[in-house]
Amino acid sequence: MEVLTDFVTDDYLREFEVKYNDEIANSNGKPNDETVFQYAWCLTRSRLLSDVKKGVMFLEQLLASCKTDQAHKRDYLYYLAVGYTRMKDFTVARKYIKSLLQLEPGNRQAQELEKAIKSEMETEALKGAAMAGGGLLAAGALVALGMALLKKK
Amino acid sequence: MSSGPYNYSYIFKYIIIGDMGVGKSCLLHQFTEKKFMADCPHTIGVEFGTRIIEVSGQKIKLQIWDTAGQERFRAVTRSYYRGAAGALIIYDITRRSTYNHLSSWLTDARNLTNPNTVIFLIGNKSDLDAQRDVTYDEAKKFADENGLKFVEASAKTGENVEEAFLETAKKIYESIQDGSLDLNAAESGVQKKPTANGARTLSSENAEGRNPSSCSC
Ligand SMILES: Nc1nc2c(ncn2[C@@H]2O[C@H](COP(=O)(O)OP(=O)(O)OP(=O)(O)O)[C@@H](O)[C@H]2O)c(=O)[nH]1
Ligand SMILES: [Mg+2]
């Protein structure tokens, strides 16, 4: 799924970082939620794991302080699920996508992400098995992995 | 593994932009799945779709980014514009405000893509003619003045949906053929055959037309 694999370019990441830092400097250290969200979203699309981690940390702060606005909650939950999947922390990713589906059970975009997380998780598990086990087991896991990848296409 | 539906010569990147609720996601879904979604939630950030089409005997994979129209996403969805070979700008023929915002979408598209990007204007929801708020002639004039291709379409009935996506690809392909689009430029939005099977040399031969029988299957 492309939303899990595309990368932001450095100049955009820097643009939102600058905006975030400017607001911290100019508003008693309290940036606008929208600015934080934009920066966090870009961070989750970075190639660097440390950026992705920082992104989900911001999103978790936004989520914690978001009491009533369901539309914004939806955005945070979705990109938290994306971020944690990119970090390969599938347990937490699934927790967030499930909360989103509880808010909006029929949301197709969320359903697709849930499916993609599941298949990513299976692929990783098979890769792990292939590396851990030797000989036959590894060969079997590799075949299964190949099949899983083919199915994903 | 390199045969069948996964075999294509080019990848074109598209973006779909326009106000919220004009039917961007429904148009994409109609194009990729041939189905209409009657009840579609607002897009969260961006969605993605893909389909392989054929233009002049060449198989082309379209990679389509469907952006959220809600204002709070707009700053970030702009980062998806770069490197688009095609941009579809959508308005809703039953809501004048979505038409009035076109110049702002067009400015973004022009500023953030490259000069060869094909921009296609679509007036969506043509099935709702009784509630029409923008005439065909007015929009056609706007499109002509700005050098855009234009159709009215309906994601519900499917009218002109296929045509708009294919026409855009045709125009992109023409600019590859006549040399105005530089395939080596990083942001052309066009990639020659991917190297998933590692057959780089073979693929460039195919693209040069040394294997004309490959399209007759
Ligand atoms: N009658 C009719 N309704 C349509 C058509 N296209 C879309 N709709 C409806 O319009 C609403 C909005 O469609 P979407 O595709 O979600 O709009 P969007 O442009 O993706 O909106 P955002 O994701 O918020 O930017 C949905 O309820 C659709 O069912 C159409 O061609 N005809
Ligand atoms: Mg949408």
- Would you list the SSEs of chain A in sequence order as H and E? HHHHHHH
Which bin fits the share of residues in helices of chain A? over 70%
**CATH architectural label of chain A:** Alpha Horseshoe
Small ligands present: guanosine-5'-triphosphate, magnesium ion
Gross morphology of chain A: globular
Largest sheet of chain A, in brief, is: none
Task: Kindly report the name of the CATH homologous superfamily of chain A.
Answer: Tetratricopeptide repeat domain
**Distance between the amino and carboxyl termini of chain B:** 16 Å
CATH architecture of chain B: 3-Layer(aba) Sandwich
**What does the radius of gyration of chain B come to?**
18 Å
Transmembrane segments (chain A): 128-150
Membrane topology (chain A): Single-pass membrane protein
Family (chain A): Belongs to the FIS1 family.
Function (chain A): Involved in the fragmentation of the mitochondrial network and its perinuclear clustering.
Keywords:
heterodimer, A: mainly alpha, Serine Threonine Protein Phosphatase 5, Tetratricopeptide repeat, globular, B: 217 residues, Rossmann fold, 7 strands, binds guanosine-5'-triphosphate, binds magnesium ion
